[in-house]
Amino acid sequence: MAFDHTKYSPAMHFxxxxxxxxxxxxxxxxxxxxxxxxxGNQALINPMSVEQKRRFFQLLVEIGYKEIExxxxxxxxxxxxxxxxLIEEDLVPDDVRIQVLVQAREDLISRTFEALQxxxxxxxxxxxxxxxxxxxxxxxxxxxxxxxxxARAAQWVKDYAAKQPxxxxxxxxxxxxxxxxxxxxxxxxxxxxxxxxxPESGQRVIINLPATVEVTTPNVFADQVEAFCExxxxxxxxxxxxxxxxxxxxxVAAAELGQMAGADRVEGTLLGNGERTGxxxxxxAGMNLYSHGIDPGIDFSRMPEIxxxxxxxxxxxxxxxxxxxxxxxxxxxxxxxxxxxxxxFAIQKEGEQWDVAYLPIDPADVGRRYEEVVxxxxxxxxxxxxxxxxxxxxxELPRWLQQELAVVVQQQAESAGGEVTGEQIxxxxxxxxxxxxxxxxxxxxDVNRQGDTVSLSADVDGQNVQGQGEGAVGALVAAxxxxxxxxxxxxxxxxxxxxxxxxxxxxxxxxxSSGEQQQIAVAMAKDTTSAALQAVLSAVxxxxxxxxxxx
Length: 551
Ligand code: KIV
Ligand code: ZN
Known about the structure:
alpha/beta, Double Stranded RNA Binding Domain, eight-stranded parallel β-sheet, three-stranded antiparallel β-sheet, 17 helices, elongated, binds 3-methyl-2-oxobutanoic acid, binds zinc ion
């Protein structure tokens, strides 16, 4: 199909040549408003019940949100009942403001104030769409008509609020579709609203700028926000808020640039549930600040719990690659990534600035375990395999053996497909190197040293072998050469002590050759001599073709 050049054009051309925002930095967290229970809820196949809203609200409060849009009480009985429950059961902490949305219609505004009777503090949020598409096609009003709808609604809000003076009111207005509205007109409408509310006289006012549908790149949105902030009357008395959606996949970026352009507040939802492609994700936005050393004021250390609750209530699975929250975002499968992470982990010290390759944040800060970081499949290398064996079983292999084991594990991963668990790696290690071949288990031994010579007598599965050499290993090799009539050479030998959690204290790893053939074996035992002798016995046993005994 040929591309149709006439079908789409940039919905909004806006250019602010004297823009200041590109040279600004985010230096503090904005005021956050969680709109999960309204905008998020509105987009669900199965909207939330009162009970689900209670659980969600409780979580939002616990992790630190101070402004929470709880619903649309004039449009939904559930939202009305939930609002009443929060107020009547005194479930709203003193430092939290509940926010409710309502269209610019008197009957709905009246019902909204009914829902809010007795609230200690509340934000009444009114909106009407201001873009040309809505003015011309949906509401069929001109600019004046559109401005009047907003100003009239502002007056109703003011009047109804005056009848409930015991509540500490905040008024909020959204020129819906702001991002597709001419900026001069958005300013005009907002000035008309503020002429009614008079923020300069002490009324708390939030002006919320929605990218109802994301129609531009984030830089254009930032230009619009900056021009708006510079253009409105009494800017210093108004809280400018952003409400971005994710139609072009840039909801967070637009909100971030919008803050650089002057906004004070940001609305969004946890993990970005919301209409179409969703609302701006509060988790990503908050953690982006956190990872740059700015306290978002929200506790994301409970991330797994947050994800579980949001998934449970929205019935939407979190993408495994979702920034900061997905199952796989702290996992490295590739060998080179694992190697770099392992090296950085070894250097990273508690209390020092976080600087670990491939991990923008410490997974522990969002309740994740280091065990998830290195995971093994056919893409992984020796560093990763060795890391898992050491991490999960306390077994530290010499480098030459790491290489060998990685090849065996990779073959297994390739033939089985998918991930290889720590347990499977350990099984692979046991079967390939650790289990002594049948008939080659050391029952006991006796060593006698005279000068430089060691005499060894060893019982191997009921048979006695004897030999002499420079050390116990040399003496055993001599004994086995006599026993089998073949010559053997120990090409590599490493011994180490094991962590206290294992029964064995010592481990020996050997590579023994005989002519062209060679075999590797590992043994663990109470003492280093027993481990070394058993490792040599196992390697020689394999060289003679003996089958591995079962684990
Ligand atoms: O996306 C939007 O424009 C909204 C408004 C009602 C704030 O949700
Ligand atoms: Zn929205």
